[in-house]
Amino acid sequence: MASIDEFFDKVISVKLPDDRQSVDILDQTLLPGTIKRINLHTKEELWDAIKKLKVRGAPAIGVSAAYGLAVLANRIDASDFDSFYKEFKEIKDYLASSRPTAVNLFWALNRMDDKALSVKDQSIGSIKETLFTEAQKIRDEDVAISRNIGELGFGLLKDLKKEGKEIGILTHCNAGTIATAKYGTATAPMYTALEHGWAGSDMHVYCDETRPLLQGARLTAFELYNAGINTTLQCDNMASMLMKQGKIDIVFVGCDRVAKNGDSANKIGTSGVAILAKHYGIPFYICAPSSTIDLNTATGNDIPIEMRDPEEVTTMWYKERMAPEGIDAFNPAFDFAEHGLITGIITEKGIATAPFDKAFEELGI
Ligand code: MRU
Predict the structure, then answer these.
(1) What local confidence, expressed as pLDDT, does residue 4 receive?
(2) Distance between CA atoms of residues 32 and 224, nearest Å
(3) What is the number of domains present in the chain?
(4) Which of 257, 267, 270, 284 to mutate to test the pocket of ligand 1 (most atoms within 8 A of CB)?
(5) Which of 85, 183, 306, 319 has the smallest number of Cβ neighbours within 10 A?
(6) Where residue 87 sits, what CATH number does that domain have?
(7) Could you tell me if 329 and 236 lie in one domain?
(8) What Cα–Cα distance (Å) separates residue 223 from each residue in 109, 179, 293?
(9) Can you give the CATH number for the domain in which 327 is found?
(10) Is pLDDT at 289 greater than 90 in this prediction?
(11) Beta bridge partners of 346
(12) How far is the CA of 49 from the centre of ligand 1 (A)?
């Protein structure tokens, strides 16, 4: 089995090639069968790759949008800032329209925008270079941030460790290495444990397959298994049984947007997992960089929830359509775990506990 670093290198979610003419992504729609990278050159290709989940996961979406904006801004043919900025804004707004829920997309694009404005008095060439530097910073910071989340989550795992017994961890969807720049968020505690010398058999990760797009089966099971961690895949409706049987000690999930009151939107089904965890008295943690916390959104009810093509429910993955022609299908991509169900939100700055708005303030978020 390849070392964990070799594995991370093989599945880097987003890269900026040396020629800076495109954004290089791992096409996540082809996993786990095919590991294939593609280069996105145009704004339409970028938009489409985000929309179709070729690149997905809140932090990875943010990094690809930042790289993409830098690449596209570099092609703007303008001699003064106002005409440069007009085109820059058009590209930014277009990329921002690709997906509505993960706030990291808007956060990364706004950070690039603020950077452009902060150097508006410089030459256009120098502004373009600054944008490349900023995008690279967003990517590099994401690695450090998820490693910090990993350390904090690893602390929780250490507290649960009992001699001769593996720790049962349940996760939903994919908040792993391929959803971020390196460690993932929900997987960061496990990868950090490996870096601290734990064996893959010290833990046992139960991955919800995560209907309808199967990010748990195709992506999380793929990456944890390849990293040498004991991994089991189950259908989403089996989580309750696992919890009842005492197999789950802790739940770690990722997040697309945390509201000011701590309500946390993540892949559809997360709210059900949180309710189950509360029922069985299992600690339920959201793992999220502070860029996922949106203090401008008051509660989960204010988070825009992406609705996706009903065909993802009725047809995708089946040899032939499995639902009656013409049937209505409900396909929200996200839901939110209410703050009262959440034990803690692990950010790179510390673990926030209720009341969350106060905790965010104390952590300097
Ligand atoms: O629709 P997706 O696959 O982009 O949804 C992803 C999730 O819900 C992840 O759990 C979340 O973005 C956190 S990624 C570190």
Answers:
(1) 82
(2) 12
(3) 2
(4) 267
(5) 319
(6) 1.20.120.420
(7) yes
(8) 28, 11, 26
(9) 3.40.50.10470
(10) yes
(11) 287, 351
(12) 15
